[in-house]
Design brief:
The complex is a heterotrimer. Chain A has 10 helices and 3 strands, in the order H-H-H-H-H-H-H-E-E-H-H-H-E. Chain A is mainly alpha-helical. Chain A has one domain. The chains are: A mainly alpha, B mainly alpha, C mainly alpha.
Amino acid sequence: MSHNKVLGIGLIGAIICMYLTYLNTLLGVQYFSFFGGIAAVFALWWGTDTIKHLCSYGLGTGVPSAGMIALGSGVIAMILATKVNTFGPLVIPVLCVVIAAILGAIIGYVANNIVNMNIPVMVVSIAELCIVGAVTVLGLTAMATGTFVFTDLIAGTATFFGIPVTNYAASYLGGGAIAVVFMLGAIAVQHAFNACLGPNESQDRTLMLAAECGFISMFCVSIMSVAFLSLSAVLVSFLVSLIGWVYTYKKYFVLSKRDAFMWLDAKPIREKEEA
Amino acid sequence: MEELLFGIGISAVAGALATVSGAAEDTESDIGSQGDPNSQVQLAPQMGYIHRIYSKAISGEPPAYGLWCTLGAGLAWALMAINYNPVLAIVLGSAIAVFVQGVYATTAYLGRTASLAKFEQPVYIDLIKSVTTVTMAHAFIAIFTCVSMCFLMVNALGHPFPLPLLGIVWGIALGAAGSATGNPFYGKERQYQSQKFGAGVPISASGNIVRYAEAGQRSSLDNGWFTSKMGGPASGVCFGLIVFLELWRTIFFESFAAGWGAVVAGIVLIIIFMIIDRMVEKWARKTYGPYTEEKEATA
Amino acid sequence: MSAIKAGGGSEGMKPVAVVVGIILLILALGVVYYLSPGVAFMGLLGVVIGGLLIGFGVHFVPVGGAPAAMGQSPGIATGVTMLAAGAGLAGLFGGAWAAEYGLAVALAGGAIGGGLMMAITCLMVNIIYVYAMGIPAASGKVAKDPITGDTFEAYKSQGTEGHGLPFISYVGGVIGGILGGLGGTLIYLELLEVYETFLPTLLNASPDEVKALAVGLAGIFAIGMFLVNAVIAAYNITGTIEGPHDPKFKRFPRAVIGCAVASAVCGVLAIFVVLV
């Protein structure tokens, strides 16, 4: 699959899924939160291919740093996008992509031209990675809280003597829960390529692992969402992520078996015959 | 006075938890061959040395532990938000984080090994069953102690950061301390056990890692007892000292000179460690001596 | 741990790129000054200085990467980004705790926290090398330690580029930790100040109520910016460096400018959260 095709599927899929979470607000329920997680899966799937593209030039610092810069800049773009409310909440997902693209392009320019990395795809790749980071955080945030609007992300309630009062410390941003999503994304975006690195790396296996990383992150976020969502909505998210994870994990084993030189169970070291 | 004693006591507990955490972290990463020594596990088949060593290539240790500890802390935070008992919440959070660690470990071993098919390195699927579980057990100790320590910092010492943010901060620091201290011991002393003691591995020997044990073949599980001889405890002492001294200097000296007391105490500590380091370095030069005849320094 | 060989990272600077970078920096500062010349502008200035300190500090941290784990090259055997992040965030922990004592004490506390973390870690690295592996420290890049005057050529074991942490690298590590902790704390404190000023009016709540929210936002932004700056600096030194005596150290002006520009842009976005 060409990189542009992966980019197209990933970006469009992620944005559509982000809008599907808005059904929560339209219908006044919380069951559609899991679409945020699916958006993150799409983004991570695309980001893995971008990292592969970028790292084929050799960065000198290993693959994980690319994940760190992606999420480090992505989370900044994402929080700003959720805050902008002049155009209504429906603009947020697109705005998130636009802000992240600008921020990523500037950081890419800094890395490529000022720091003098001289890698032809650097600016585009870092811009893509920044979008991936921002959309991943936005998606998992929507999954954890059921919404992607800033005022809801900072709203938390605590009960004092049976009376619910506003307590920002119990909110998604005030309680630091975004840190979990941040780290989940930072590892998930680079793990698939980092783990499958080697001369026999194949795209379908790497991308399957990318989806698996996305679903395991969804799984964690679905458990964390007990703090914000009703139990039935949590259960829906939990089941969706569990099914997705089991499917991709099994599929990944099958693909690894296909690519492996041999698949041995409790056998001794098979010494190479001297040529 | 009582408040001060309480603070010092909590610092001591946090330091003790950090020590356990650091030791378990390094043991876990050595059993799984995570971090820098992983490059040699990867390199060996390319040089023609097929092995049965685990290859847990989940980024470096600092980001990986950043994730496990943040995840443990975040899940514990979420469970406490719906009024779970803190102890139960921390145990459950750490358990789920360990599950995620195990999943990442298996995919990393499969991915790296399958991608080495060109060099005829087979996937030994029994390793996934035997080694992954052991690394998960050590990882649980590391995560649980680290998250408990963060919980004490928030709830007993009143640090302003919420629990998940402290998870990131101390998770990354834990991985950094553990990998910095423990990696050379595993990389040089264990993987290249057959090379000369008291010297670096010559670059020409790269990839020729030890693959056979006293009897039979080396399993990554044996790295556990080897690490516990020095690398693990040293990593534990390293992380424990970092956490304890950081808390102790703040709690004990912060009341002096409007906060400057803690800064001065920190500077004094840094200078003490610097002097010890210089003594260690001089001792090594004097005792071990140069490898070759010392020439007149020209440069 | 890099399985891919270093490719990029040439010497020299591109004047055009630097000028474009500085224009972006001034633009960012100008926009914020136009919208809010008081607290927000000072905040952004602090963020830029903080990012610059982080970028500069990373160059001091002696990191050997994978070969260091085999005693094949000097330095600490881990990734430069994350070691710097470990020290910087440990400093941030101390600085955030001391915030109530005022800016100067908190900054000093953050710097010392980072320095202490590196001082202990570097000491333990040398203890492992000396007492567990029997290897004395030797630098591969210079013949003589600039501080102690120790010669290294004879203390390098055969077939390696040196090993362990010579005293100059140790001092470099401590300075790197201090600068990283200082920069991270500065970013955090400046953003905290901005949020604590603007959030109460924005949310119509008392300053005490929004305290937790301001801490949470400033904390996650500080961590994000720290990582961005550390990665840019790591790209600049292409993975490994021995410390301030390494020839690669001379590349630092590029990273300092780069980090300043990147922090300015990130800082503008972070401050816009309360301005728009």
